């Protein structure tokens, strides 16, 4: 696009730009232009504006099914704990011969906020994945890439090594690491406080363990992905230790460690299955939408979407944001509290979600490309709701200044949404 044309486009209001380029949809078949725009991308990042909205899960699942069936995607990575997601992976791949139902498998998600993955929407999707894998030559995997499962991952490592190689060096290293963390009583906050005073509290133990497992990974190979499971759990130990130490120093630093871990896990999973394997990533918009196109950049923060774009060819990474104008959501008033069904108030005037609503109160999607890039390359408030939410504070802390055509490659808007259905 030449600069003159770009300047002419910017004179058009954001509302007019949306009217010109938004496409309505009622079915996943009507999202075919989005599938075509994804092209041959190897990474497709599907976001969400909340962790508790039914439609974000169901539409992502519908798109994911088409990507699997039509474009050969075989890996799904989600903003969840590795050990819990590994139970789902084993279930859909038939690694365990049992008569469990998908909802029973999701009982593995015991760490708060359980509703993110233990919900009816995911249960339906997991049932589809299992049925698909039973008939497919290329089975689809389901993996958790978050960093929070320090104790659960440690227990998995110790248990597996004690069972398979009890007298080996890796087993001894795992027990030493476990002994280092044991005094903190499974409370990350306790470790964070202690680590602030002792900067190398358990660093050496987990670093040696991960290095040893990587050098001995051939010992653990089998058809049930035990070697990958061991390696990622050890990676979680190393990076979670780093994350919890950083918590006491800087929110920005711990954020970056978490997102860098998620990218590291994504790359490990792709390396394991072959670098040509295509992966779908489900995370909050704040993780998949390029941080350099938001005010996070001023704070020195990065995220999964930005790092993947930096590490790969731009055409290999395709990020899709999701949003809503109003409805209900599952969230909690403070960290660790029971989940509640809350009302999402109508979007604040002149924000991205408000503009999308004012241009027609129906579902629509936008594709950002060279012909319209300049129209959407301007700052606008973009709604983000986390697991902790207070609707009364909506206008003050729930909008991230963003340049939409830089942050995403496409955006899916569901005008009115309903709360997720926890199991």
TrEMBL record:
<dbReference type="Pfam" id="PF05139">
    <property type="entry name" value="Erythro_esteras"/>
</dbReference>
<dbReference type="InterPro" id="IPR007815">
    <property type="entry name" value="Emycin_Estase"/>
</dbReference>
<dbReference type="InterPro" id="IPR014622">
    <property type="entry name" value="UCP036794_erythomycin"/>
</dbReference>
<dbReference type="InterPro" id="IPR052036">
    <property type="entry name" value="Hydrolase/PRTase-associated"/>
</dbReference>
<protein>
    <submittedName>
        <fullName>Erythromycin esterase family protein</fullName>
    </submittedName>
</protein>
